[in-house]
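Retro notes, structure queue

What went well: the backlog is down to a handful. What didn't: a couple of records were mislabeled last round, so from now on we paste the full input next to the output in the thread. Example, using tRNA 5-methylaminomethyl-2-thiouridine synthase TusD from Psychrobacter alimentarius:
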Amino acid sequence: MIDKNSMTTTTPLLLITADPSHPLAKLALRYARAYLQNAKNAVAADEQHNDSDHSKIKKASLNIFFYGDAAHIANRLRWQSADQINLTKEWQNLAEQYELSLPVCVSTALSRGITDADNSARHQLDSDNLAAGFALVGLSELAMMMQENNTLMQF
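Corresponding output:
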């Protein structure tokens, strides 16, 4: 979101807690897409007008954090029927397009059987299954995002 009065940018935080099968998980993805597209259009419009007052506006971005049952979205082995949206692939595509991080709470992921190579070795698990583009992080990451952001939306 862009505050035209102070010419600063705030980065909203999407806290996604819904299981991939829940409608809120799909709504979070739709919201993220719409927000990022609108932000991209706003930045393009500002660049087109080349107004010196707007030169201080940074490229709008979005912080995302997967917690609880939403950790299942980061499971590369999660199968999805052809008639359903594959949230894992859709988040990966969005992250690649907009250079987003996809952090997942490590403790909620591990408790749901989702792990990366490091945690697999550390906890003596047979394998890893974290989808590319996602990263297991501690809750301190969420705390830092919450300190930096004025807007928190939970899905």
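Agreed that this is the format going forward. Reviewer comment attached to the example: The chain is about 40% helix and 15% strand.
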